[in-house]
Amino acid sequence: MKLNFKHVFLLALLITFGTGETFAQQTKAANIDTLMQRANRLGLFNGNVLVADHGKIIYKAAIGYADAGKTTRLTDQYRFHIGSIAKEFNAVGIMMLQEQGKLNLDDKVSKYLPQLPVWADKIRIINLLQYTSGLPDIKWKTVRDDVGNMADLMKVDSLDFEPGKKYVYNNNNVFLQRRIIEKITGISFRQFVEDYELKPAGMNTAIVDPTEKDALVARSYDNDGKPDDLVYPISGWTAVTLDDFYAWANAIIKFKLISPVATREIINGVSPGRQSGLGGGSMDGDKMIGHTHDGTTLNYQALLVSKVPNGVTIILMTNNKQGNLYSIEKSIEAILEGKPYALVKRSFLDEFGNKLDSMSGEQIISFYNDLKSKRGNEYSFDDENTLNETGYYLMSKKRLPDAVVIFEYNTKLFPKSGNVFDSLGEAYYNQGNKPLALLNYKKSLQLDPTNDNAKKIITELDK
């Protein structure tokens, strides 16, 4: 057969292009592996990783050990707890039931759980999804099981605030979502997840509430080699493998379980930076743009980032928390984009949180700068997140004056960041200093005109 020269040229071009594309992906995978193996050698990552680029998995690895004694190597068949990301299963479950006409997000909790005190008649299901219910958190130090936690809720006389007026992230919101699902369906939350979410999503090895008897479950442990308990005080936590996690990520962005309209309800928080049922993300009409969610429980930590237009999915799961998954994820993204990337470093807050508890805001800044000058290559001093996280840590401890000091200093280090001025504005707002809160929110909005949260609070304060 006589070949046409034009056809030969096109064939050669396709082969060359395909080879070049394969080589590029191999280079990315090699760079990601170098990043992750270095992190492991430094004791900064132990766990499993999956990276997809342009819709194809280019890197999947199990790095380190499945146990505190470091006797069993991890494989990609190991299941990990994923902390708050497991709350996606109850959020999606609630939306599935709404789409089936079995509930409405505006329904009062008392409609399904009438045994609860009178405050249940004030809380709507949407408040549970948005963490705006006013419920107190679970008494983690004393509660032992679902029955005990329900008994604690029965003793609650009043809510911490009027539902819908404030945002407080806590697990009683999640607990009641799961009880509502059980009440409506007549089956356990575990059975509901297995039958109506895991199987339809193609998750073949995920397990709800693993116990000591279950094989291939990575055990979490601290830096002193002390293992954590595997069974949690309240139920409903799904542990997943890399393949499970990737299947779930795709089920969310491809709307396999719930519609785009329902997804939008639980991917947007009450304001930017606030958690929703799906963590956080963005949509353009009925198209998913991005989905991000992180989770921590004991020494397990997980992170999922999907950037849909580029076909990028990054999954990180560890059973030895180092507080650096976002930093690792940013470096992986840079590798995928062919940009310079930062090596993995230690978390300032995770390493020194206990030490900071006894320091004033000024002392923390002095300690921060001293550490930066002496050990700058070990810790993440090169972006705003280190001090921003520290400031929020202090706010969580009700140390508002010290948080203000930290946020103020961060605005001097990163004067072009709208985010750091937003954080400072929030600290002043919580302090009751409305003039300075307004000033900093306006500065934040000037630097970042897309900050809808700042717009909302500026409108409130201007009144």
From TrEMBL:
TPR repeats: 418-451
GO molecular function: hydrolase activity
Signal peptide feature range: 1-24
Record-linked Gene3D superfamilies: DD-peptidase/beta-lactamase superfamily, Tetratricopeptide repeat domain
InterPro entries (alphabetical): AmpC-like (IPR050491), Beta-lactam-related (IPR001466), Beta-lactam/transpept-like (IPR012338), TPR-like_helical_dom_sf (IPR011990), TPR_rpt (IPR019734)
Top-level taxon in the UniProt lineage: Bacteria
Keywords per UniProt: Hydrolase, Signal, TPR repeat
The Beta-lactamase-related domain, residue ranges: 30-324
Pfam family, one: Beta-lactamase
PANTHER family in UniProt: BETA-LACTAMASE-RELATED DOMAIN-CONTAINING PROTEIN, D-ALANYL-D-ALANINE-CARBOXYPEPTIDASE/ENDOPEPTIDASE AMPH
Name by which UniProt lists this protein: Serine hydrolase
Origin organism lineage: Bacteria, Pseudomonadati, Bacteroidota, Sphingobacteriia, Sphingobacteriales
